[in-house]
Amino acid sequence: MAGKCGACGPGYPSPLEAMKGPREQLLYLPCIYQNTGISIPDFLATVDVDPKSPRYCQVIHRLPMPNVGDELHHSGWNACSSCHSDPTKSRNFLILPSLISSRIYIVDVGTDPRAPKLHKVVEAEELARKGNAAFPHTSHCLGSGEILISCLGDPDGNGKGTFILLDGETFEVKGNWEKGGKIPNLGYDFWYQPRHNVLLSTEWGVPKILAQGFDPRDVEKGHYGRRINVWDWSGRRLVQELDLGSGSIPLEIRFLHDPSAAQGFVGCALSGQIQRFHRNSEGKWEAEKVIEVPSKKVQGWLLPEMPGLITDILISLDDRFLYFSNWIHGDVRQYNISDPKNPKLVGQVFVGGSISKGGAVTVLEDQELQDQPEPCVIQVKIPKLSSRFFPDFWKFPTLMLLFRGKNSQKLQFSPQSRGWDFPGFRGSGSGIFGIQGKQNPGGAADAAAEPGRAAPLREHVAVQRLGPAVLPRPHQGGLGAAAAGRGHGAGGAGRESRIPAGFREGAGRALPGARDALPGGGLHLRHLAVIPEIWEFWECLGMGTALPTSGCDPTGIPGMFGDVEMGDCTSNTCL
């Protein structure tokens, strides 16, 4: 394996070295039943993604959680490339925080990677007792061997942008990461960059408000976020706040992978902006808008204007391209960021969304498109189901070496989905699209960049059924019920799943845990610099964490998976 030492710990010495690694052969998919009306536990699915395997694209193992109502969300690893020089470290456990129950599941994927088993459960009471924290969200492994997890609030469902530390060996809660001082009112994602002595965190919303579904009036009341919070990494104290404007709701945040670059991007969901953050000559951090997706004036929707709702962003390992998904409009975009101050749109594909032709929404005024995009239809192999129509939304894109492609996955958080009313979810469940292209050093400024380009009909795409649709029911609660100690009724183990499962974000960023500190303080995403020439589509399982069967320890990159023959590709596993 290129770049590997004779005796070393997990990962690679650099993100670019990781791009030379082998292809993933296993995929771990967190699947949820929350808000489906089916009271059985969420589970972790293991999928064989080795094209040479007779069980290629099949679920080979399911690990149910021991409780009902968790809502598995982001996930991460117990060890990362920060420990690359330490041969005693191994990436052999998945960290699965639960957004509703506030539990954290530790899953052993090292003993038998094809049949993970539950190792430990960190109960919500421990987070509350040792850190007055709840609703854990983003998990990152640290160079110290500890695990850092951001939280959305306190045990009562109030907003609180706090962090907790887990011991990397015992997985005991060690307490809060921050050392006194002011704590932000809200929390969500974070990214740390030791070389620049900084951690940046973002803000989503007040947990008990999020549980009620989206209401625009809650934005006006200040229940949703608007800031990047700047922390002194070594001092563990909040030192600066960057106000991105009312209604911005900054979610996913990314540094460039170059460890010397003190800059990156954050996606602002509701305002439809990508803001570039950077450190100025005086050592202070600043943010500026560099991309804006204009809202569309519509009829037949929740509001008279429909935002794109940017929900996830990614940067290629070589820092050449930025990718993000517009959750409601339904498109995935690629920008050339060779000049970070002036990103250039070089690729755009619609894979669903709420503005497709023939739907309930009529676009009255559009600053970008001449016409509403065609609906995305994919022919599949499932008996009694000749095609799948995807009218709804795509949340978590990721880049993987698994198939030199880009993927998008439905659903962010089930109670919030109520506010947007995506009827296509009611019977069909969620799924994954892969967007695949040929390697092209010139970028993707061809047909893929044409506004409103329809997804082609893709024949013979195998779709694996995992469980129920992820659809919030209007009568069901969420974080509010969890905060009040409710919502964990008896499970219905043994009930047969009949429709595709809801998939939750895995350990990749998409996938948090996809960003670990490198030796020397660098940070990276486990994502390939894909330069599509022609975009293609497929739909399959869901998203999760890919696991290689060779090289370093049983480790891997988180990501999402789509099912077609992908051809020759390499992997950035072990990052």
From TrEMBL:
Location relative to the cell: Nucleus; Cytoplasm, Cytosol; Membrane
Sorted UniProt keywords: Acetylation, Cytoplasm, Membrane, Nucleus, Oxidoreductase, Protein transport, Selenium, Transport
Region (Disordered): 479-500
Keyword DNA repair on entry: no
BP term (GO), one: protein transport
Pathway assignment: Organosulfur degradation
Family: Belongs to the selenium-binding protein family.
Annotated protein name in UniProt: Methanethiol oxidase
Species assigned in the record: Taeniopygia guttata (Zebra finch)
